[in-house]
């Protein structure tokens, strides 16, 4: 999992208050289904300068999520001009509004429309445990073959915990990326790495099976390739199992735990209501995390004679990433499971809202897919996390 430090910190995420009309409206059915034009119109109703700047950054985040590269320059410059003094005085907003230089904005303005080819064909795409067949890594993750218009193919981690697709610089060059010359971005990783640099660029085409994304704005770095939730969420109805990604599968017959697509900011995520060690929380479904379960808070020390008591282990350090391991009780939709989970001091799981209150998040990672499968159907609003 990696998280944006630009829009994540710049958007002032709060529980909606009585005077926050834009954020109240976004939570309504109309707001959830609103177009970008409707979002802009609603934000422009905010006459208070601070509130207008807040919602403008949220709209900008939605534009990045929607991949509308050619719409970004006009809005980006309009907000930058209208709120120049507040942006200059803000340590969080100033880097955000330095993300694109003049040359990059000119390229974005002439980029073709982002599009996704439509298909009703049922496809079963195999997931591979490693980035290639010649290198056996210590950790197993779901890698999928992704192609480009020029015929180059590479394996990407199928990462529902990554808000944005990220392409390795070498892969991007092989696929024919057009790098934006004066655009830069900063991000953090789950393991506490902060302020890492990434570039941005436009790929003419990315293909997953017979689906094709065209004119794709992507982040480019020296890290591994990740197919993030920004594109996964645009693949239509799908199912992720331990061995395959299915496109256009039959609708799920049951729903053990309902999934919400949470997109308050650029760090959109798939979440499911859960309890860990009797604490109500939101679980982020993160196929790019190697653990079964990772917690935002450490477990509780337990009485050894109590059965199924949470938090019953000592600290542990492994593979150069410090963590503590605990035994606990996970509850989702009536399913009660004894689990072993990890807590990483200094980690960067984004905050979550439940009932207007911030609660600690947990990550259900790739190892959890030996027990679960993900059925994603955002168009119908019926997405489920089911026991296998």
TrEMBL record:
Gene3D superfamilies: Acid Proteases (2.40.70.10). InterPro entries: Peptidase_aspartic_dom_sf, Retropepsin-like_bacterial. SUPFAM superfamilies: Acid proteases (SSF50630). It comes from the Bacteria. This is Retropepsin-like aspartic protease. The lineage of its organism: Bacteria, Pseudomonadati, Pseudomonadota, Gammaproteobacteria, Pseudomonadales.
């Amino acid at each position: 999992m990696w998280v944006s430090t630009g829009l994540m910190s710049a958007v002032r995420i709060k529980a909606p208050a009585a005077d926050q009309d834009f954020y109240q409206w976004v939570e309504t059915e109309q707001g959830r289904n609103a177009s970008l034009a409707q979002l802009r119109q609603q934000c422009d109703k905010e006459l208070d300068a601070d509130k207008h700047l807040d919602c403008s950054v949220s709209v900008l985040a939605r534009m990045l999520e929607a991949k509308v590269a050619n719409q970004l320059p006009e809005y980006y410059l309009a907000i930058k001009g209208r709120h120049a003094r507040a942006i200059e005085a803000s340590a969080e907003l100033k880097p955000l509004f330095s993300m694109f230089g003049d040359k990059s904005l000119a390229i974005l303005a002439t980029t073709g429309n982002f599009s996704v080819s439509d298909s009703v064909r049922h496809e079963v795409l195999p997931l591979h445990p490693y980035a290639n067949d010649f290198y056996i890594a210590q950790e197993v993750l779901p890698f999928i073959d992704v192609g480009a218009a020029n015929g180059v193919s590479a394996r990407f981690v199928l990462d529902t915990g990554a808000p944005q697709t990220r392409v390795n610089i070498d892969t991007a060059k092989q696929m024919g990326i057009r790098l934006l010359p004066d655009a830069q971005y900063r991000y953090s990783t789950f393991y506490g790495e902060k302020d890492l640099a990434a570039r941005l660029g436009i790929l003419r085409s990315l293909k997953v099976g017979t689906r094709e994304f065209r004119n794709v704005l992507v982040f480019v770095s020296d890290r591994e390739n990740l197919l993030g939730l920004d594109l996964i969420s645009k693949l239509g109805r799908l199912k992720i199992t331990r061995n395959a990604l299915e496109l256009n599968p039959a609708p799920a017959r049951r729903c053990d735990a309902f999934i919400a697509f949470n997109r308050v900011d650029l760090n959109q995520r798939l979440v499911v209501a859960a309890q860990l060690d009797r604490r109500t929380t939101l679980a982020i479904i993160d196929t790019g995390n190697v653990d079964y379960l990772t917690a935002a808070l450490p477990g509780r020390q337990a009485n050894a004679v109590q059965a199924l008591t949470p938090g019953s282990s000592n600290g542990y350090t492994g593979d150069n990433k410090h963590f503590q391991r605990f035994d606990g009780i996970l509850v989702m939709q009536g399913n009660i499971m004894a689990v072993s989970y990890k807590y990483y001091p200094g980690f960067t799981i984004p905050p979550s809202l439940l009932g207007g209150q911030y609660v600690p998040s947990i990550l259900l990672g790739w190892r959890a897919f030996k027990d679960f499968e993900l059925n994603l159907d955002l168009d119908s609003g019926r997405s489920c996390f089911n026991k296998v």
